[in-house]
Design brief:
With 223 residues, the chain is of the alpha+beta class. The protein contains 4 helices and 10 strands; from the N terminus they run E-E-E-E-H-E-E-H-E-E-E-E-H-H. Helix 3 packs across helix 4. This is Hydrolase, nudix family.
Amino acid sequence: MRSHNTSVTDIEIIEDFSSTARCDEGFLRVRRLRCQNRRADGTASKVYRVDVVDRPRLDAVAVLLYRRGEGGLEVLTRMNLRPAAFFRKGKDMAVPDGRSYLRVEEIVAGLLELEDKGEEGLRHRAAEEVREEAGYVVRPEEIRLLGAGFFVAPGILSEKVFPAAVDVTGKQPQPPEGDGTPLEEGTELRWHPIEALLDACRRGEVPDAKTEIAITRLLAGQP
């Protein structure tokens, strides 16, 4: 992962080209649809509008790295730049808070590629993301799947996230490769006691759903 001498303190919008951009280009694709419900008795609802957000790759895998220490389980997070969360600032919030979400703490995650099929594909992609984002080399067979995938925002987002975990106790990491994009500037890896991190999720200090879900599922099936 590329390092920089100074940390990121702000994200400046150079141009907002929303009004001229097509819905079917860019990292997220927005489909604007007119739909109609079909009922069992042959009737139909009135026509209504639906917006659906797709990624170029439909689904993702999220990986909870953990290690066993004298104090119990510890889990790894990454502090990542998250512009969408950051740009909440200045907007009318139902529950106002004074926090800046320039960075959001979360577990390792990445999009599934076209060749990633079935459970074997999930394990392969999880191992690749662990190496790229955290610097640990693990084998796909070491990856533990934590149940079925889940939707984050099924009203608008088609993506499912598949949670997984891997034990890296005793493994020595290398510097993470990262992907070289500006969004990875200043990324920081942190270890936390697992119960403390779960509490931080529930207090909103770590406001990332996949992190809380993965921890909860790991603890529920802990060997």
